[in-house]
Amino acid sequence: MPNQPEPGGPVTAPDVCPFCKSTDIATTSKSVDVSTYWRCTACGQVWNASRLQNQRQPWSDRFR
Predict the structure, then answer these.
(1) Backbone phi, then psi, for 28, in 5-degree steps?
(2) Judging by beta carbons within 10 Å of its beta carbon (0-12, 13-18, 19+), is residue 28 exposed, middle or buried?
(3) pLDDT by residue (tens digit) across 12-35?
(4) Count of alpha carbons within 13 Å of 23, Cβ hemisphere only?
(5) Is the separation of the CB atoms in 18 and 64 below 8 Å?
(6) In the chain, helix, strand, coil percent, each to 5?
(7) Residues 6 or more apart from 38 whose CB is under 8 A from it?
(8) What's the first-to-final CA gap in the chain, in angstroms?
């Protein structure tokens, strides 16, 4: 994912939802950091960029 935070680097908002690719993304956090959770207002998915990056999803390539 292109907007994954690097250790010690700046954290930015994701450009698109990793699930539906919508650009309608929001957060309730007052400040953006590696622990920020994001919600896609189009599909309703909630995610944390650093947790999503570390999560293994062996099933994800089967349906492409």
Answers:
(1) -100, 0
(2) exposed
(3) 899 999 999 999 999 999 999 999
(4) 1
(5) no
(6) 15, 15, 70
(7) 13, 14, 25, 26, 27, 46, 47, 48, 49
(8) 17
